[in-house]
Design brief:
Layout: E1 15-19, H1 22-26, E2 39-42, E3 52-55, E4 61-65, H2 70-82, E5 92-101, E6 111-113, E7 116-119, E8 124-125, E9 141-142, E10 161-163, H3 166-176, H4 185-191, E11 209-211, E12 213-216, H5 224-237, E13 244-248, H6 251-263, E14 272-281, H7 290-296, H8 302-322, H9 324-328, H10 355-367
Parallel strand pairs: 1-4, 1-5, 5-14, 6-11, 7-12, 12-13
Antiparallel strand pairs: 2-3, 3-4, 5-13, 6-14, 7-10, 8-9
Helix pairs in contact: 2-6, 3-8
């Protein structure tokens, strides 16, 4: 990453909100707590549809909208990190977007806080119609470098798993617990379709704050087989530590750009928080097809999930700003590994017996000028 030299008037935000498209971004405008449109800064390299960073007049709180999908998210955050207009070395980043949600763990309009983000589609995939008979429940995904759906991946790109600062996550959850969450009649009606299933009991309840993890894929999918597959992938890639509950298209891309920004001395990856609110269910209720859930259930929790980005998120933003001198200026000490699959920020990623081999092979190949592990 090429970074620009900081300018004398560089803004030093305490919190940077990261949204992914217009509705997520606009929910923060016109709120009583602060005015994000007080000053706008054009940043070269941002999405042509969202070319400006918005900030409060004093620059304490800022927002960027990356545009949707992994490429847009990675490109926009890389441009932001490299911009000399901002000094982000003490900034907290709040990823705040909607997501598909698992009715096994949570429900429409719930607000989830992730410790792990897992790039679940970064695998081999076989056409489901041509799967071996004993693989029928896998959805066709096999970890790279293996021929066994249950084997730990032998080829690592480094973006498969990012782990955030859990002590910071717990503080953010405590702030969000003070929010009164929105709900809607459409969410309630769709939620009721899950009442008859004990497995989906969480999906039938009112929205709440939930600690669980997120899966990143550019594919927008629906169905029990894929949901079970990506639950399995999350467990596998995190050596059993991750608990899948939401699916979205950007988090790993944002984290990848921020980790590289940390390596470049531009940001602190231990200051990253991820919020995802439940817009639609990742699998259908009993008696409904996956296609009906995908095409007819997309908007069931949409309105309330957008609203709860703000209702929960603003409590986190205010908590950080209000307690800046007491707690957050110095940073929240980590109590777990923080970073990517390669140990880019120090330490060894604790993901299965392959973890030490990953670190060793990465260092040896880096010395030889190669970083792809085969």
């Amino acid at each position: 990453m090429t970074v620009g030299k900081l300018v004398a008037a560089a803004l030093t935000p305490k919190v940077f909100i990261i949204d992914f498209y217009n509705d997520e971004g606009a929910i923060w405008y016109g709120i009583p707590e602060f005015d994000l449109l007080a000053q706008n800064t054009s940043v070269p390299g941002l999405s042509p549809r969202y070319p400006d960073v918005h900030c409060t007049q004093d620059g304490t709180i800022c927002q960027v909208v990356t545009d949707e999908g992994e490429i847009n998210a990675a490109s926009s955050i890389s441009a932001l990190v490299a911009s000399p207009a901002f000094d982000l070395r003490q900034t907290y980043f709040l990823l705040a977007g909607i997501a598909g949600i698992s009715p096994e763990l949570a429900t429409l309009a719930s607000v989830t806080f992730g410790k792990f983000a897992v790039q679940v589609a970064l695998q081999y995939e076989i056409d489901p119609s041509e799967l071996p008979a004993n693989w029928s429940a896998t959805g066709g995904f096999i970890p790279q470098g293996t021929s066994d759906p249950n084997a730990y991946p032998a080829y690592i790109y480094g973006t498969e798993v990012f782990q955030l600062n859990d002590a910071l996550r717990q503080r953010a959850i405590a702030f969000a617990q003070n929010a009164t969450l929105a709900d809607s009649t459409t969410a309630q009606a769709y939620r009721a379709l899950y009442n008859s299933s004990a497995t989906f009991a969480a999906g039938s309840r009112p929205p709440s704050i939930v600690a669980c993890d997120t899966a990143t894929s550019d594919n927008w999918w629906s169905g029990n087989v894929l949901a079970a597959e990506f639950e399995r992938t999350t467990k596998l890639f995190t050596a059993g530590a991750g608990t899948y509950c939401t699916t979205q298209q950007e988090d790993n891309a944002v984290h990848g750009a921020l980790v590289r920004g940390n390596v470049a001395g531009r940001v602190d990856f231990s200051r990253v928080i991820s919020i995802r609110t439940g817009s639609d269910f990742d699998r259908p209720p009993p008696g409904m097809s996956a296609s009906d859930n995908l095409f007819n259930g997309q908007s069931a929790g949409y309105e309330a999930s957008i609203e709860n980005i703000y209702r929960a998120g603003v409590k986190v933003v205010q908590g950080i700003v209000n307690e800046w001198n007491v707690t957050f200026a110095a940073g929240v000490p980590t109590n777990n590994y923080v970073g990517d699959m390669l140990g880019s920020l120090g330490g060894s990623p604790p993901y299965g017996p392959y973890a030490k081999q990953v670190a060793t092979r990465f260092q040896s190949t880096k010395r030889r000028g190669r970083t792809r592990m085969r």
